[in-house]
Amino acid sequence: MRHAVRVPRGSLAAGTASVLAAVIATLFLLLLPAPASATPTPTPSAGAAGGTGETLQGRLVNEGEPLEGVTVTVTTADGDEVGEAESDEEGAFVVPLPEAGDYTITLDEDTLPEGVAIREGRSAEVTLPVAVGQQRNVLFPLGEGTRNVQGRLDRLPTLAVEGLQFGLIVALAAVGLSLIYGTTGLTNFAHGELITLGALLAYWIYGNGRLPFLLAGLLAVVAAGVLGGAQDRLLWRPLRKRGTGLIAMLVVTIGLALFLRYFFLYLFGGSSQPFRAYESQSPIGLGPVDITPRALTSMLIAVVVLLAVAYALLRTRIGKATRAVADNPALASSSGIDVERVIQVVWISGAALAGLAGILLGLAQQVSFQLGFQILLLVFAAVTLGGLGTAFGALVGSLVVGIFTQVSTLFIPSELKNAGALAILILILLVRPQGILGRAERVG
Amino acid sequence: MDWGLIITNALRAMVGIDTVVFALAAIGLNVHFGYTGLLNFGQSAFLAVAGYGLAITVAEFGLPTLLGVVIGLLSAVVLALLLGAPTLRLRADYLAIVTIAAAEIVRLLYRSVSLSEYTGGSDGLGRFSEGFYSINPFSDGRYGIGRVSFDERVTWALTVGWSLVLLSCVLVFLLMRSPWGRVLKAIREDEDAVRSLGKNVYSYKLQSLVLGGVLGCLAGFVYAWGRAAVQPDFFGTETTFFAYTIVILGGAARVLGPVIGAMIFWTLLSLTDNVLTQAKSAGYISDAILTNFEIGQVRFMLVGIGLMLLMIFRPQGLFGDRRELALDAR
Amino acid sequence: MPADQHATSAEVGETTAGGAATADRASLTPAKDRALKALAGVEPVPGAPKPDPILVADGVTRRFGGLTAVEVAHIEVQRGSITALIGPNGAGKSTFFNLLTGFDRPDDGTWSFNGQSLAGVPSHKVARRGMVRTFQLTKALSRMTVMQNMLLGATGQKGEGFLSAIFPPLWRSQEKANTERAEELLARFKLDKKRDDFAGTMSGGQRKLLEMARALMVGPEMVMLDEPMAGVNPALTQSLLGHVKALREDGMTVLFVEHDMDMVRDISDWVIVMAQGKVIAEGPPHDIMANEAVIDAYLGGHHDAPLTEAEEQAQIAAGEAELRREDHT
Fold it and tell me: Which of A229-243, A366-380, C269-283, C294-308 has the lowest mean pLDDT?
């Protein structure tokens, strides 16, 4: 039995969204610094070109220091080796190519000096087309290496802050996932695509500077929320009405995720794209921590939005109603809460939050069609760690996951940091199956 | 448009290596999901440990193929125990999350640079299948009917693969009509009821996980031999999701469901790929709408949509009986 | 509920349950006689010792967060008797049941069955030792046939081992014997015509019958029935009552949770009353009906009429939500 709605009708969803939007707008205005100038491209050393003149060349520099004796290998798209070169005392290397075409150039990380590595999130392998006669420059972003044994403790604060930033982004996505799970029981494997959607929308609306980034971001968050609400209305609500089982719905989310991911690929293409204006910024030093202005802004936005969500959950009528529904839908319904309405608000705000997470993630890394998919498992790990279905648990879980992934790179190769976070998830579930903040399950 | 080629390719796909690999993976998954109701989202990990167990043993340590197979099988058993022991006492969604996480860990480990000495990193491993092909009884030539034919290597791999499919189906058939299978199905329905009747539910779930994992690991062997290589990114979550689609397509908790599902699945994918390619080369579809590169993406979109529609409108599978709907209807 | 309103309800169960029903006409069957005699000298106070207890529980406590759901200091259940466990909603009856049968773990306490401790014994082993339970919300295995449901109850099946399952000759004869036994039970419960139907197609009452019949397949010494009458249509109630009585005739001990006072009075030899997690009274049914504390507990708490399943659900939900809220604070 559904009774009259005690939650004020009005446009709750729109209200929530506009509050979020206002908060974000203010923050962007206050905090986002002017776009940093692009880093200068390394000067190519004049090298002997190959037969028709095509080369891949570059200069390896770490914090102004040229790196000597580093090996790079060039292969064709089919994997045949074309040539190899070692950087000279100025850090320069040149690999002559037989003809124009697509080539993959790989930097042998083992030949890098101690303490230097390819920068976080970048690859030692770059594939790029070379035009006829082109002497193409290759940039390997180098930085302090993960194999740096000496500076471990020095790097801890920076890594912890990076982890915090990542954790906050994960939290934005995780809170929505957790609330949707809590109110509808849906394990949503398509939540990653909501994250991607936010980033893609922002990218398209922003259009490399057509609109101010802040406005683009805002519009994208609102649009993501609207689309999330539409998804619930058009897909999940009818399925709930039909009494479709939770496991069946879970499988439907997998199908939806697969479809959307490749639909995004079709629309966006397979490459990663930065938000141009904020593509490269030099870190500023805050005490022991090096941080880029965009990262700082991201964190502040995330913190404020999460606080707003927490406030909404604890203090507003709709928030209390949401928690009541998550606790016990039957009871909430019988005590006069319009459960469907709560679910709709949860979907709209969950999707808007996921969209914001996508934008911030796209800002931190780059925008790609599988941006959300790549962090989905970590979001799930966060939600599970915190205790399935508890919004605050998801928050705690996210911070644990975020900080763990970054700090763990002190001890394990950074390519395995996600594996490490997932392993921790499994280990914690062994000890505390109900998650960090979850309550023990009752059996029978 | 060359319809002859399209049909030929579709028929080849129907019995091809991909069909065998996914039929085996899905037979295992059917034991988990269809019969026992276990949400294993890490089936790809069982394929991976088997494929890599074989490849590393043979290619990196120069040991015999048979030992590689034994190590692959043992790895699958160990993986099942590792995944199941902590999670099978918990609610169903925990197994889902832990298995998908474990599968991703396995894939990341196999593709990591730090272990590439043994695993070949993101390129994977080759040069381990000579032992398998050295006992190929087929002499050089093509085998098959008309244009639907395969060379002697593929024929050998297919012969072994389909034999494994047959054996697996017989095994599942025997088990599922035994009292043992009855307990599994009862667990799928309501595990508390089964407990109250004195059955050790945990032990049965673990047995189911091991059995399905071992069947899935056969898929890993066939994949490895069929391509004469293992490559880490094949073992991603999408492989598991394909297997789910196949199980549901053919009808969960039916012995031949996964096999029929795999045949339909790969035939349909081949048809769409080939029809689109031909339509493009015939000029029916312009590059503005679809480039050749994007044809591959259409397949995934179709699988996604197909999985959703199936689950919503025919959860019992194409040939299933609604009465014995093997999926959770609550 | 006043006791005199249903004076005639003692004559129930005549039309059902074969031999048991016939014996019932004499109103005092040998088994009932034995149980009543054994309980005659028992003092009607909470925790009273019984001459031959099959089940003894001591200090069994279960807390959810800050709320103590069950805190049973001492109870004993007389072998061969039908004992009712009653109490208002939220009294902790079902939780206590779950604890005794290994479906939940207590924070504290010991209990023994046939002199062997059951503390920490997992639920399936409890069943194997001869204490089998049913559930408040029937757990018929919907997408299996009635016969498959029944066969699942048989113990010591060779075919339930993984390796022997592959070789039918190893288990075929045992399966045949089990099938025959199941058929007898189904006939007794008048379910033989449903043999090959999916359990999910049956009515609520039929499912209760199936669940009871299935429990008997285990060959229990003691049967624990969690609200056997909940959601059963009145026409089947009498039949069910007869079957419960028949269990006693077959030498089994029955402990059941019930809301329906008529049923309690009608078939139980002894009644244990719980309120707010504690045992507040014990005694023969007629004394209990007149007991002030019991009436207070009932009237002061909730109504005692049988609830519909929906009401039941809502109340359980309410209770659980309350526990959860407790948990968070």
Answer: C294-308
- Nearest residue of C to residue B35, measured between CA atoms: C143
- Which of A334, A443, A444 is nearest residue C314 as measured by Cβ atoms? A334
Q: What is the mean pLDDT of residues A16-23?
A: 53
Q: How many pairs of residues across A and B have Cβ atoms under 8 Å apart?
A: 131
pLDDT tens figures, A231-281: 999 999 999 998 888 888 988 999 999 999 999 999 998 888 888 777 667
- The residues of chain A that CATH labels 1.10.3470 are 12-34+153-431
What is the SS3 assignment for A59?
strand
Q: Hey, what domains does chain B have and what are their CATH numbers? A: 3-132+147-324 (1.10.3470)
- B210 shares contact with chain C (CB less than 8 Å): no
Nearest to B47 by CA among B59, B61, B29: B29
C148 and B182 within 8 Å at the Cβ level: the answer is yes
Residue A246 contacts C, CB cutoff 8 Å: no
Give chain A's mean pLDDT.
Answer: 80
Q: Predicted confidence band at A88 (pLDDT cuts at 50, 70, 90)?
A: confident
Domain that holds residue C232: 3-140+223-328
For residue B49, give Cα distances in angstroms to B27, B41, B68, B98, B226. Answer: 17, 15, 11, 17, 16
Note whether B190 contacts A: Cβ–Cβ < 8 A: no
Q: Which CATH number fits domain A55-138: 3.40.50.300, 3.50.50.60, 2.60.40.10, 1.10.150.20?
A: 2.60.40.10
Residue of C nearest to A327 (CA): C321
Give the tens place of pLDDT for each residue, B171-211: 999 999 999 999 999 999 999 999 999 999 999 999 999 99
Do the beta carbons of residue C248 and residue C242 sit within 8 Å?
no
- Tell me which fold the domain A12-34+153-431 belongs to: ABC transporter involved in vitamin B12 uptake, BtuC (1.10.3470)
ipTM for the assembly: 0.86
User: Range with the lowest mean pLDDT among B58-67, C124-133, C284-293?
Assistant: C284-293
Does position B255 have pLDDT exceeding 80, yes or no? yes
CB C307 within 8 Å of CB C137:
no
Report the residue of chain A nearest C137, measured CA to CA.
A444
Residue B297: per-residue pLDDT: 87
Q: How far apart are the first and last CA of chain C?
A: 37
Q: List Cβ neighbours of C316 (8 Å cut-off, separation of 6 or more).
A: none
The reply to whether residue C317 touches residue A444, judged by beta carbons under 8 angstroms, is no
Which positions in chain B touch C128 (Cβ < 8 Å)? 198
Residue of B nearest to C223 (CA): B196
Find chain B residues with C-beta within 8 A of A261's C-beta. 300, 304
CATH of the domain at C264: 3.40.50.300
The full 3-state SS of A93-134, as one line of letters, equals: EEEECCCCEEEEEEECHHHCCCCEEECCCCCCEEEEEECCCC
Give C204-245 pLDDT, tens digit per residue. Answer: 888 999 999 999 999 999 999 998 888 788 888 888 889 999
Rounded CA-CA distance C267/C13 in Å is 10
User: How far is A11 from A5, CA to CA, in rounded Å?
Assistant: 13
Chain A interface residues facing chain B, Cβ-Cβ under 8 Å? Answer: 109, 187, 239, 243-248, 250-252, 254-263, 265-266, 377, 380-381, 384, 388, 413, 415-416, 418-419, 422-423, 425-426, 429-430, 433, 441, 443-444
Higher pLDDT, B319 or B191: B191
Enumerate the H helices of A316-416 as residue ranges.
317-327, 329-334, 339-364, 371-386, 391-407
Q: Mean pLDDT across the stretch A298-319?
A: 93
Among residues 261-280 of chain B, which lie with CB inside 8 Å of chain A? none
pLDDT, tens digit (0-9, with 9 covering 90-100), for C317-326: 666 655 555 4
Do C21 and C116 belong to one domain? yes
